[in-house]
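step 3/5: co-fold with NDP
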Amino acid sequence: MARFAIVTSEEIPKQMPAAFRALLPEHDFALYPDLGAADAIDYAVAWKPPPGVLVGLKNLKAIFSFAAGVESFLSDPHMPRAVPIVRAVSDVSRATMSGYAMAQILRYHHKLDHYQRQQAERVWKKTMPREPAETTVTILGTGVLGADLAGRLLPFGFPVVGWSRNPKNIAGIRNLHGPASFDEAMKAGNIVVCLLPLTPQTKAILDARAFALMPAGGFVINMGRGMHVVAADLIAALDSGHLAGATLDVTEPEPLPPADPLWRHPKITITPHIAGLMPPRRIMQNMADTVRHCLKSGKFEHTADLDRGY
Ligand code: NDP
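step 4/5: write tokens
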């Protein structure tokens, strides 16, 4: 039997330890701050941990994150550096995120916003479509999520360009990597989907310069983190007519304040960080599956790297 600590600074249901015990009856779960003997904790299940708490768990063997993005751990200067952080990755999270991106991409491709406006005027008028082959989708970040999206786009006939930090060889797409090929990736993308982690290198990566590189009439989808996009530059690129639209699932800050101009922009769709949202029951089930898999295999997969920053 291993002992788990559930550690987060967010409000979570008090019955979560009992729910985890039901999923993993061979283990014990305690909810921070009522952890009992800190040295007896083997693993943590965590998200946005209060800084300094995890380092106090001296015998921690691994941390299981509730989320795929792990910047809330990396920003803690006291994070125990030798303890692996396992990101929340599952078939369901891949499908959920890719489903959201596909919904936005197909909405743009089928001009659904245009037809919705026509409907309001009761106008029955066809606009000739572009073929998928004429619409390149650039995916910034071809990790777990970006690679999954690429695989789902190809059967539709969209050319896909992927951009990563290290060289990749994802079948069927144009694989680019590194800062030197960023411009090429942006120039190719009629649609640009951001699935990057937030790091010093990727912060504000989608700025006026990046938008100007995109072909006219382009569409931007940000599913990474709000700070990837310079909001004022996005608004300017939309207002000038250079970009046709944008969907932002993530903003800075979150929640987006009511007075923020992003809310009211007619070419921007805002969703409240729900692209990867799953019912709590599913999140816990995925977490339990990951824990069981890691403990059985003795291997921790999809781990974040503190030095790399994601
Ligand atoms: P991964 O770590 O698997 O993939 C990240 C990708 O970004 C990798 O391809 C990596 O390159 C690339 N990358 C990182 N830094 C750079 C850089 N400086 N230049 C070029 N490429 C870079 O993460 P996931 O796919 O699991 O998740 C991606 C992000 O999606 C998360 O960090 C999070 O921010 C966001 N997310 C948002 C959710 C939402 O609800 N909106 C839900 C879940 C995640 P390389 O392959 O070479 O390492």
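step 5/5: annotate
DSSP finds ten helices and 13 strands in the chain.
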